[in-house]
């Protein structure tokens, strides 16, 4: 077909109405700013991002940035807009800013795209473009950056040597303790070097053989005692652990090593039994590092979960939250999260990793990382748990270890008042209706995460009544035992709720903790306890009058 016919055909197909439909489907806002007159026009999507309504006059973000742009971004935004308009660039303008909501204290990340129309003197007369809500991506980037900072802070404060080597056993990354041990000014001075730069041939060959075996078999070495023979200083002894290092796509990148200097211990005690005793004392000093890891774990959990509301057709549906997280010792394998899903949804998860301590906490951190990759499934609990199980099972198979985690995930759609839930071998939540009657939520059974790669999970849906409350918890709550060794069980908890009248979400959750304390006769628990309470309410939306 001739090109001219193609153009005429496209003009007939791509009408303004269809272009508006495409913009709505992309969830992008469209604006036109007449630079000469100062008049700006927004589509409804722009007004929504700004927190404005059609009834009120929305401010011009280019001439009044102080009204709707985060104060830390205002100068940058104005500077970038002026640079684009003065620069005569054919490349579209793209600026990422934080936009404040006019009707609330909240804000979101928005990318402002624009293309200028210019007169014959190349002066800008009109700016046309779109707004794109990039809050989810920016939040993920900021969280990833925070995780990296936490990781670097942790390894720099641990007195042991921590390092990464590539497949040729050359140093790629190390902490300051490693640089100090090997006698170089900074960790960067280790990059690209191998052990034979520091140790004699015998020691270098042993280290290289160990690392080759780890990379070929995938089996780590743990707490192995090394007699280190150096090129230019006295012998020493270290306790070495090494693990395979895999990239994001599962490709082997090299090894990770942790080394603790135990020279003084070995020299002090000759006998192996005495050496083992002193090494055990050395391990106890690492409890301080576990305390640091515990603080980091608490920092990664939400300190406070904001309430969530959605108003439509004169009705506001509202959900608020309260949580309790009390690990029994050190770091824990229990964790929870609640987060917004789309414009009107809320996702909530409670998870319990097998066992306690650092191993369980590492699996819990891994699951949190995997969960971030599955945000596109957050409105479908069964699909979310199915994919999470598949990813965890693959990792555990590669690590040649058996672990599992139970989880329950709830998605609450505040547009409809419908709650969808699915469980993976986890205790069923307790739901209390507005009549004050509590019962165990009926959910389809599902196997724990990480056991079977091809396991699938199923949804159950519930239309919530205003005044309903939901309690999600780990089994540390119901398996708490009294002095006779008898476990409390879920039925005692339900009976306790049926004879109480919680006035708030916080009251609802704390009543569960009170029930445990009364049954066991103490406040110390043998297992981690994690609880997340949700209250659902409805009321007529306030109208301007």
CATH superfamily of the largest domain: PPM-type phosphatase domain
N-C termini distance:
60 Å
CATH class of the largest domain: Alpha Beta
Choose one word for the global shape. flat
The Rg value, from CA coordinates, equals 29 Å
**Mean pLDDT over all positions:** 85
What is the name of the CATH topology of the largest domain? Phosphatase 2c, domain 1
Ranges with pLDDT <50 over ≥5 residues? none
Structural class: alpha+beta
Let me know the largest β-sheet: 6 strands, antiparallel
Q: Please tell me the total number of domains.
A: 3
Instruction: Figure out the total of helices.
Output: 15
CATH architecture of the largest domain: 4-Layer Sandwich
Please state roughly what percent of the residues sit in beta strands, choosing from under 5%, 5-15%, 15-25%, 25-35%, 35-45% or over 45%: 25-35%
Quantity of strands, as a count: 21
Describe this structure in words.
This protein has helices spanning 3-13, 16-25, 44-50, 74-87, 135-157, 176-182, 201-217, 263-268, 272-285, 287-300, 357-373, 381-398, 475-478, 489-498, 505-520; strands at residues 28-34, 40-42, 93-100, 107-118, 124-133, 161-166, 171-174, 221-228, 236-246, 252-261, 308-312, 315-326, 334-341, 345-353, 405-413, 418-424, 430-432, 438-440, 460-463, 469-473, 529-540. Helix content is 34%, strand content 29%. The model has no long low-confidence stretch (mean pLDDT 85). The protein has a 6-stranded antiparallel sheet. The chain has a 5-stranded antiparallel sheet with strand order 2-1-5-4-3, with helices on both faces. Helix 11 packs across helix 12 and helix 14 crosses helix 15 (505-520). The protein folds into 3 domains: 13-139, Beta-Lactamase, CATH 3.30.450; 158-266, 2-Layer Sandwich (Beta-Lactamase); 305-540, Phosphatase 2c, domain 1 (4-Layer Sandwich).
């Amino acid at each position: 077909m001739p090109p001219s016919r193609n153009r005429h055909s496209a003009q007939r197909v791509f009408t303004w109405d269809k272009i508006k439909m495409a913009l709505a489907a992309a969830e992008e806002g469209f604006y036109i700013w007449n630079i000469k007159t100062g008049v700006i026009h927004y589509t409804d999507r722009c007004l929504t991002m700004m927190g404005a309504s059609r009834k009120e006059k929305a401010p011009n973000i280019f001439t009044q940035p102080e009204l709707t742009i985060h104060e830390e971004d205002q100068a940058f935004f104005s500077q970038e807009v002026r640079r684009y308009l003065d620069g005569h660039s054919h490349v579209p303008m793209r600026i990422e800013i934080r936009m404040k909501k006019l009707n609330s204290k909240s804000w979101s990340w928005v990318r402002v795209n624009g293309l200028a129309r210019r007169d014959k003197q190349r002066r800008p007369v009109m700016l046309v473009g779109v707004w794109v809500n990039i809050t989810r991506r920016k939040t993920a980037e900021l969280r990833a950056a925070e995780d990296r900072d936490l990781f670097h802070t942790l390894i720099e404060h641990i007195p042991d040597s921590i390092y990464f080597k590539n497949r040729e056993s050359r140093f790629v990354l190390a902490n300051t303790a490693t640089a100090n041990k090997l006698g170089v000014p900074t960790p960067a001075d280790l990059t690209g070097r191998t052990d034979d730069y520091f140790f004699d041939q015998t020691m270098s060959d042993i280290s290289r053989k160990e690392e080759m075996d780890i990379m070929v078999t995938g089996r780590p070495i743990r707490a192995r005692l090394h007699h280190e023979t150096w090129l230019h200083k006295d012998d020493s002894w270290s306790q070495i652990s090494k693990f395979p290092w895999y990239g994001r796509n599962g490709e082997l990148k090299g090894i990770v090593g942790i080394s603790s200097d135990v020279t003084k211990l070995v020299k002090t005690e000759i006998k192996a039994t005495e050496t083992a005793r002193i090494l055990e004392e050395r391990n106890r000093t690492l409890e301080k590092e576990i305390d640091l890891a515990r603080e980091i774990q608490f920092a990664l959990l939400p300190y406070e979960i904001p309430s969530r509301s959605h108003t439509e057709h004169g009705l506001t549906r509202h959900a608020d939250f309260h949580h309790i997280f009390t690990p029994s010792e050190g770091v824990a394998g229990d964790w929870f999260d609640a987060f917004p899903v789309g414009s009107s949804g809320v996702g909530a998860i409670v998870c319990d990793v097998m066992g306690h301590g650092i191993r369980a906490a590492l699996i819990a951190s891994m699951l949190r990382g995997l969960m971030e990759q599955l945000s596109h499934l957050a409105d479908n609990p069964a699909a979310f748990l199915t994919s999470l199980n598949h990813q965890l099972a693959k990792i555990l198979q590669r690590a040649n270890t058996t672990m599992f985690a139970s989880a329950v995930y709830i998605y609450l759609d505040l547009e409809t008042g419908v709650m969808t839930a699915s469980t993976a071998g986890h205790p069923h939540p307790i739901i209390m209706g507005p009549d004050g009657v509590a019962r165990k939520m009926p959910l389809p059974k599902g196997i724990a995460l990480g056991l079977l790669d091809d396991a699938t999970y199923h949804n159950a849906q519930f239309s919530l009544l205003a005044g309903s409350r939901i309690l999600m918890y780990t089994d540390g709550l119901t398996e708490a035992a009294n002095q006779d060794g008898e476990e409390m069980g879920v039925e005692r908890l339900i009976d306790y709720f049926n004879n109480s009248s919680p006035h708030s979400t916080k009251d609802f959750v704390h009543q569960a903790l009170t029930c445990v304390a009364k049954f066991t006769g103490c406040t110390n628990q043998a297992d981690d306890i994690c609880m997340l309470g949700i209250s659902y309410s409805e009321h007529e939306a306030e109208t301007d009058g």
